[in-house]
Each structure stands twice: as C-alpha cells, then as structure tokens.
Amino acid sequence: MKLSKRKIRYIINHRKKGESCETIAVDMKLSRRRVEQIWKQYKETGKEPKIGIKMGRPKNPYDPKKPRS
Fold first, then answer.
1. How far apart are CA 13 and CA 28, in angstroms?
2. Which of 1, 19, 32, 34 could form a disulfide with 14, with the two C-beta atoms 3.0–4.6 Å apart?
3. HSE of 68 in the Cβ direction (CA atoms, 13 Å)?
4. CA dihedral of residues 35, 39, 42, 43 (deg, nearest 10)
C-alpha cells in the first residue's frame, strides 16, 4: 500500500498512545520496519515526514568511462 499523509498521521498518533509498531503495521498494511522509520523520523525532527515525488535517494550521474561493478 502507498504511504499517505493520512497514514503517517495515524502512525504518529497511535505510537504516541503507546501502540506497538507491529499492530500499526497490520492496521495500515505496511511493514513494521516502515512504521519504525516514520516514527524515528518524527521523533528526530518533531515534524511529519515528507512524502512525494523525488523524496528518495538522489540519482548518481551516469559516467560512461567508469567501469561497472
């Protein structure tokens, strides 16, 4: 399932209430690890994690001279 702002708020609110990551993951049809990542990011920044296009790892520029591994 895709992650939405609504799901992020649900995760944060239920973790604040002391609910386990595993229970939330089952409710939201996400992995436990993803719930933990969202909670960790919220605790570190105090803000909801941003979601959207181009939010992942930056692309490495293509270098045709560099040998492939």
1. 13
2. 19
3. 2
4. -170
At 5, which helix (H) or strand (E)?
Answer: helix 5-16
- Mean pLDDT, the chain cut into blocks of 10 residues (69 residues total): 86 95 94 94 90 76 79
Q: Which amino acid is at 14?
A: H
Answer yes or no: are the C-beta atoms of 37 and 28 closer than 8 Å.
no
CA distances 52 to 29, 55, 56, 61, 68, Å, are 19, 6, 9, 22, 30
Residue 32's nearest CA partner among 17, 46, 51, 19 is 19
